[in-house]
Amino acid sequence: MPEFDHFVIFAEMRTGSNFLEANLNAFDGLICHGEAFNPHFIGYPDRDDLLGITRAQRESDPARLIAAIRSGEGLGGFRFFSDHDPRALDLCLPDPRCAKIILTRNPLESYVSWKIAQATGQWKLTNAKHARSEQAVFDPREFEAHLERTQAFQVTLLNGLQRSGQTAFYIAYEDLQDLEVMNGLAAWLGCKSRLETLDRKLKKQNPEPLPDKVSNAEAMEAALARLDRFNLSRTPNFEPRRGPVIPTYVAAARSPLLYLPIRSGPEAAVRQWLADLDGTSAGQLRTDFTQKTLRTWKRDHPGHRSFTVLRHPLARAHAAFCDKILPTGAGTFPEIRATLRRVFDLPVPEGEPGADYGPAEHRRAFAAFLQILKSNLAGQTSFRIDPSWASQAALVQGFSAFAAPDMILREDRLARDLAWLAEQAGAGAAPPLPEHLDHHAPLLATIYDADLERTAQDALARDYQTFGFASWGQAA
Questions:
Q1: Do 152 and 257 fall into the same domain?
Q2: Is the Cα torsion angle 356, 357, 358, 360 positive or negative in sign?
Q3: Domain final residue, candidates 207, 226, 245
Q4: pLDDT band at 204, cuts 50/70/90?
Q5: How buried is 345 (Cβ within 10 angstroms: 0-12 exposed, 13-18 middle, 19+ buried)?
Q6: Are residues 304 and 343 in the same domain?
Q7: Are 449 and 362 contacting, i.e. CB atoms less than 8 angstroms apart?
Q8: In the listed set 193, 226, 259, which residue is the last one of a domain according to the structure?
Q9: Do 81 and 13 touch, CB atoms closer than 8 A?
Q10: How far apart are CA 149 and CA 261, in angstroms?
Q11: Could you report the per-residue pLDDT of 124-151, keeping only the tens digit for each?
């Protein structure tokens, strides 16, 4: 029994997919049906149907066309680009009975080829005498968008294969002229026939060197020099992916406002503000949501708004330290505290801080905690990355796994932004906020200096970079 019952070629425009299809179709028992899920045509331009399935039928039920390809003569397949019907991708990517062929090409080559094809109107070439020549104009922003789109699609494919325990047959544009590679692909698909020669009806267009294909080669080279090809400037991220933590969400008693709390932020103040907005107590706020009850709440509150609140990374880390690590009472993390003292030599007292623990001792202990956080967020420690100090970027990304918040507010402008939010939701006049949202801020002010700021920016680089925070106390 063959391992596969259909196949898909994942490619992009100007990667050689027409040539690959032509050669696959030259094998006995293999048949590729073009761009079956191109939103603008079905299979090939000027076709009304494919295997008896009309475009309208495909639109209403893409699985029907895949079933027709799967049950057709031989091993059938199709070409799929990143802008094709995503429903087809959802059907074929997790299916181990669907063979995945991933065709790639140098993205600069494919971009320039695409620009030339646009300029000449020639998308295929079967006779070199009819070749049309035109230089492309390199557009840096357009190319960067092309590169980002191409890379994002490749990551989607890679992650889909990893999560479903599959592998794919990768083939580069340069491999298309290799007869042995083509025969190897056929063998991988379970096809017994082999080719003696390749189908060479399609001719390579624009064989000139890249600099000769563009009219502004110097501008192209300058733009490429600015690209961080190896992502050297990326802030490393080793934090685990987080879920949306829906049970922590807080809804106003009556107003259509939903708060997505970030630990070690102004959570208590925002909860009280939500209660004051409706003239209720904090105990009357709606909590303990599930996905089902949250969807019901959203349906019952048309015009609802959801929001979260960011705190400056340094102030948030300080709040986490003061609330969870420095003290030893209820709600703290005694086991992590003990580990930090024993393994990382965190200079905090064995028990509750006493009279001998002053500002100098506090600064030394907090600076050490920041350095430990750098290792923790990099996945280099055995204790958990707790939501109390996990990056706000990771937490917001986790919210988005269910639904992204409508607004991301900031603590230093919270009174103004909440008033605007209440107006947007039709919730009436906004109540005042406490004058000091962070009751640890006065202590932080006594120990703050440029060295502490540099330590924080080094340890918490992801939040500084993602959200554009300036030094603590300055406008972002």
A1: no
A2: positive
A3: 226
A4: low
A5: exposed
A6: yes
A7: no
A8: 226
A9: yes
A10: 32
A11: 545 444 456 678 888 888 888 888 888 8
